[in-house]
Amino acid sequence: MIFHDIGMDAASLAGPLDAKLEAVRAAGFSQVMIAAADVVAHPGGSASGVRAVRSSGLEVTGLEALSDFEGLDGQLHAYKVDVAKAMLELCAALGGRLLLVEASTSRHASTDPDAIAADLAKLALMAVPLGIRIAYKALPWSRTARNFRAAAELAMRVASPNVGVAVDAFDVLASGTPVDDLDVLDPQQTFLAQISDYMWHDVRNAEERAATAAHFRVFPGEGAHSDALAQFVSRLDTIGYCGNYSFDVYNDDYLRMPPEAVAARARRAAVWLAETVLRRALPVPNVDRLRAARG
Amino acid sequence: MTHATDREAIPEPQNPLGLDGIEFVEFATSKPQALGGALETMGFRPVARHRSREVELYRQGTMNVIVNAQPADVPRTVQPVERPVISAFALRVRDAQDAFRRALELGAWEIPVRAQAMELNIPAIHGVGESLVYFVDRYDEFSIYDIDFRAIPTVDPHPPAVAGLHFFGIVQYVGPDRTQDWEAFYSQLMGFRPLPEQVRFGIMPRGLVLESPCRKFFLQLIEPEDTARFAPMDEHLQRVGLGAPDVPAAVAALEKRGVEFLATERVHSSERGALTKPMLGGVMFELVKSDLTAPAK
């Protein structure tokens, strides 16, 4: 398998959790990003959702997403700590080792870097006994971290070994961020790369960007920015990134298609990424054994 | 739930909790008599029983060991089974409620109060795996055991230690690449500090050793090696380290009592330390050369 580290995001697929998992597995993926809502909305209840994931044989790339956590005070903070604990426990129950945390968009959130770092450090400490890492992800419309540079700076300020960043290729592409900027990332503290493309050549304003992000993403190799995406992934590879790649393709059309048809597109994207971009070659079966036998 | 009010970067004091050693180590097992027998060969004596729960207190010298056979009623805590496991350790601190509040503030998981073991008001947080960490502050003038335990009649409540044995540390098995995470956990919550690689005690030198800020005991974090890295393993507290001023004398005294020590090419008793053979399916004690002796009570 040349795309063992590339997975699908279950939120890219329509249907109940079981159908999504089956589609991902049947398309040949070994891992899947799980949306918390899919598990807790399982018709048999949350425990059945957990069982479905566990018995699918798929590895859990991570659980998504804790949002609006950092920078709050008083009761709001206490409330979000409870939410975070529930998500961490769910993540652990699924066998997941990574919780995706989206930078806060709450207007109640402080933008003081020390306050944000203290909250993320607390989240990190909560995650340690459960063996979970925190992947902090910038959002363009966040108040606390609008791009991966800001997220990486905050993660560095936290200085907890289990806090790192998630980078979303869409955000980098759509904002016209030069691919060289990825060099600021510490590969050891970069925990997840989310990969998707989109069809338009230009995104004119923030509104259009938000709409595109939520409804019009496509799989890598299908969109208008294959070259830029290829550069993005190659650059991550060059700086020594060794985490997983997850296709976070949020597309309304795909939510009206059978999940197996969408998963088949994802598989094409995974092969494109692994073979064409990362230039991985499939090892010839038994070649080592034959060599050894020949002496 | 407490609120985050301290938003300034104030340098942490060296010993933020006023840590002062280990008050007790707790084992959970559904066969408390069998474990009791093993503990007695190690020199511990049963000194008290809990008034209402299946909990016993063993003691030698400055060391208290709790044997808990009470079925757990809290998620993510040890459910006693036949094979004994280390289910908790208790830290002596300046102010238990303060230590507890501070720990929660920093991100520790609390144990619901109603279910806290022994029914004492001993605050506890989740530690590694299913284990707990208690905070105890009443260890001087009157002890936590005076409240909920009944002394076993005719038994010396303070049996002397065999060969000067005292708590030295606890060995924790952690998952692959998890040492740093746990180092952060113990340093941020309790002020533990890593020792340089060349400073090691005993005969089992692997992993990272963390020193308590009171310098009275150590935690040793050990990751799986080689192919074991790929085997599923739950993180847990693996064994208790006992300090002895004279290890060969302690080994001799314990052997006379029936304790067996490992004597393989790799692991065997020496001046530096010794390791007991596993008892009851996994209980091990490690002896370590140490002149640390906690003040007598």
Kindly describe this structure.
The complex is a heterodimer of chains A (295) and B (297). In chain A, 44% of the residues lie in helices and 16% in strands. With 295 residues, chain A is α/β, with parallel strands linked by helices. In chain A, strand 4, helix 5 (113-127) and strand 5 form a beta-alpha-beta unit. The mean pLDDT of chain A is 93. Chain B folds into two domains: 22-151, 2,3-Dihydroxybiphenyl 1,2-Dioxygenase, domain 1; 162-289, 2,3-Dihydroxybiphenyl 1,2-Dioxygenase, domain 1 (Roll). Chain B has five helices and 15 strands. In chain B, strands 6-7-5-1-4-3-2-8 form an eight-stranded mixed sheet. Chain B is globular and about 45 Å long. At the A-B interface, helix 4 and helix 5 of A face helix 4 of B.
User: How confident overall, as mean pLDDT of chain B?
Assistant: 89
Q: Shape of chain A from CA axes?
A: globular
Give a quick account of the main beta sheet of chain A: strands, pairing sense, barrel closure. Answer: 8 strands, parallel, barrel
- Compute the number of helices of chain B: 5
Q: Give the uncertain stretches of chain B in residue-range form.
A: 1-5
The count of helical stretches of chain A stands at 11
Annotated CATH topology of the largest domain in chain B: 2,3-Dihydroxybiphenyl 1,2-Dioxygenase, domain 1
- Specify the helix fraction band of chain B: 10-25%
SSE string of chain A? EHEHHEHEHEHEHEEHEHEHH
Largest interface: A-B, 25 and 27 residues
Helices, strands, pairings?
The complex is a heterodimer of chains A (295) and B (297).
Chain A: E1 6-9, H1 17-26, E2 31-35, H2 36-40, H3 46-55, E3 59-67, H4 74-94, E4 98-102, H5 113-127, E5 133-137, H6 148-158, E6 163-168, H7 169-174, E7 190-195, E8 197-198, H8 206-215, E9 217-218, H9 226-239, E10 244-247, H10 259-277, H11 287-294
Parallel strand pairs in A: 1-2, 1-10, 2-3, 3-4, 4-5, 5-6, 6-7, 7-10
Antiparallel strand pairs in A: 8-9
Chain B: E1 22-28, H1 32-41, E2 45-50, E3 55-60, E4 63-68, E5 85-92, H2 96-106, E6 124-126, E7 132-136, H3 145-148, E8 149-151, E9 166-173, H4 179-190, E10 193-194, E11 208-211, E12 218-222, E13 236-244, H5 247-256, E14 273-275, E15 285-289
